[in-house]
Specification:
By secondary structure, the protein is an all-alpha fold. It contains four helices and no strands. Helix 1 crosses helix 4, helix 2 crosses helix 4 and helix 3 crosses helix 4. The longest helix has 21 residues.
């Protein structure tokens, strides 16, 4: 439960665009091209949003005391 709460809190720090791209690609397992078409954005933009979102989540988790492993 604690891990889920920490991940949810980290997701809340992301922009709406980053959060949507990250959830669709990583949690729902959709392809970048599919998500890009749905969002009406270039595939490279979706990739950038996912990358930036992952970095921002890592920073938020680190700031919250997350310890991997």
């Amino acid at each position: 439960v604690l891990v889920a709460w920490q991940v949810e809190a980290a997701l809340a720090t992301l922009s709406d665009d980053q959060r949507r791209a990250l959830v669709e690609v990583h949690w729902r397992g959709r392809r970048y091209a599919e998500v890009a078409a749905e969002l009406g954005a270039p595939e490279g933009t979706v990739k950038s949003r996912v990358y930036a979102g992952l970095r921002a989540m890592r920073a938020a988790l680190d700031a919250g005391g997350w310890r991997d492993g």
